[in-house]
Design a protein that fits this description.
Elements lengths: L4 E4 L3 H12 L4 E4 L4 H5 L6 E2 L1 H9 L4 H6 L1 E3 L1 E6 L2 E6 H4 L5 E3 L2 H15 L2 E3 L3 E6 L8 E6 L2 E6 L2 E4 L17 E16 L9 E4 L5 E7 L2 E8 L10 H11 L2 H4 L7 E15 L2 E2 L2 E3 L5 E2 L7 H22 L3 H4 L1 H23 L7 H16 L1 H11 L5
Helix pairs in contact: 1-6, 1-9, 9-11, 12-13
The structure holds arabino-flavin-adenine dinucleotide (FAS) and P-hydroxybenzoic acid (PHB).
The site of arabino-flavin-adenine dinucleotide has 34 residues, from α1 and α9.
Length: about 400
């Protein structure tokens, strides 16, 4: 098999790039380890930055997002029961975000690939990357049953998430990894209930952080900060709802509609960046190169700028013979990646309780939050990061 760009990973990063390139006449083959049902069974991000939404529309995948997604001009932050609204539109110069689940984004992208006749191969095994930085073009192999399939290509894009093989294909003496692990995780629940509030609520509380989010007006998404030692089995639905009420302002807690969980999971929180994001003819994108704690809703949205830079770099390469974009991809993508790392770390550090925090640390957290939300300068920095820094 031969193609121009071989993309490893059928999550939003790989799918969005393959769709954008296809629309510009650039041939791709996308390899996905799991079945489509498995990929679509994941519950992940819920908030799309302005830039991500624009890319979905450019990829001709924005119709359902625009019809069913909700535009949010603000969110709330509560600090031990006192609530403050962060007016995104006012403090970001007019931008907002779209609340639309990553599961739906991924479904729309798969449907669009089918509609265009894109090559998406599921259930591939033993994907291996070859000749990434050699005088000959790269190729990728994978196992299909007893058969080894070879794909010759010009470029390989590693959009295979944190646990995929692409980042590991970069030699250890080239790859630099930066990581910060947080001493807690997020226990997330999905329930067919009316959201407790029309906008998201990020709740700081001495008992721990909580987040009230949603997927629609009939599907709510809630999170509780929990110790890393907790398991889902430790948390009945009733225990979850009781604890959530304790961490929310009384007026909000009183309105909480509870119901059975249709999904419940715990995700550890980490910050991670791999550099460089290019090695020879391999380009890393999305979670393959960086991970953020979900506090700032930056995970999926940071992948968007990787895809934007790669898309334009490859179009310039194939349509104009101009390699400037590809040559500067890693430094350009990382410049924005580190800014989203900073914002995610900042919100995580201010809104969560840390087991080893001294009373002084806790006072500093309160002062930090009070300054951020109590000044135009602070609100502007929160808003412009949350709606998405420019690509
Ligand atoms: P993905 O991990 O989504 O996709 C990579 C794909 O590569 C997967 O489908 C995988 O099966 C495939 N793959 C892996 N190895 C392979 C191989 N060897 N061969 C072929 N394919 C292979 N972000 C937010 O903004 N808000 C959130 O609330 C949020 N919650 C999250 C909760 C969890 C549990 C996780 C893990 C992440 C969460 N994120 C959240 C971040 C998440 O949204 C990612 O940023 C997003 O999935 C990134 O998309 P991709 O880069 O496509 O990576
Ligand atoms: C979600 O709805 O899953 C969500 C929203 C905002 C975040 C994190 C997760 O910051």
């Amino acid at each position: 098999m031969k193609t121009q760009v071989c993309i490893i990973g059928g999550g939003p990063s790989g799918l969005l790039l393959s769709q954008l390139l296809h629309l510009r006449g650039i041939d791709t083959v996308l390899l996905e380890k799991h079945s489509r049902e498995y990929v679509l069974g994941r519950i992940r991000a819920g908030v799309l930055e302005h830039g991500f939404a624009e890319l979905m529309r450019e990829a001709q995948c924005g119709a359902r997002m625009d019809a069913e997604g909700e535009i949010h001009d603000a969110f709330e932050v509560s600090d031990n029961g006192v609530i403050k609204r962060v007016d995104l539109k006012k403090y970001s110069g007019g931008s907002s975000v779209v609340v639309y689940g990553q599961t739906e984004v991924t479904r729309d992208l798969y449907d669009a690939r089918d509609k265009l006749g894109g090559t998406v191969i599921h259930n591939v095994e033993d994907v291996a990357l070859h000749d990434l930085n050699a005088p000959v073009p790269p190729h990728v192999t994978y196992r299909d049953g007893d058969e080894i399939i070879r794909i010759d290509c010009d470029f390989v894009v590693g959009a295979d998430g944190f646990h995929g093989p692409s980042r590991k294909a970069i030699p250890k003496d080239v790859l630099r990894e930066y990581e910060k692990v947080y001493p807690f995780g997020w226990l997330g629940i999905l329930s067919r209930t009316r959201p407790v509030h029309p906008e998201l609520i990020y709740a700081r509380h001495e008992r721990g952080f909580a987040l009230c989010s949603m997927r629609s007006q009939v599907l709510s998404r809630y999170y509780l900060q929990v110790p890393l030692t907790d398991t889902v089995a430790d948390w009945s639905d009733a225990a979850f709802w009781d604890e959530l009420r304790k961490r929310l302002p009384a007026g909000i807690a009183a309105k909480l509609e509870t119901g059975p969980s249709i999904e419940k999971s715990i995700a550890p929180l980490r910050s991670f960046v791999a550099e460089p994001m290019r090695w020879g003819n391999l380009f890393l994108a999305g979670d393959a190169a960086h991970i953020v704690p979900p506090t700032g809703a930056r995970g999926l949205n940071t992948a968007a700028s990787d895809i934007y830079y790669l898309y334009h770099g490859m179009v310039d390469h194939y349509l104009s013979g101009d390699d400037t974009g590809l040559e500067h991809y890693s430094e350009k993508a990382l410049a924005r990646v580190w800014k989203t790392q900073r914002f995610s770390w900042q919100l995580t550090s201010i809104l969560h309780t840390f087991p080893d925090a001294s009373p002084y640390d806790q006072k500093l957290q309160s002062a930090d939050l009070e300054y951020l939300l109590g000044s135009d300068a602070g609100l502007t920095t929160v808003a412009e990061n949350y709606v998405g820094l420019p690509f």
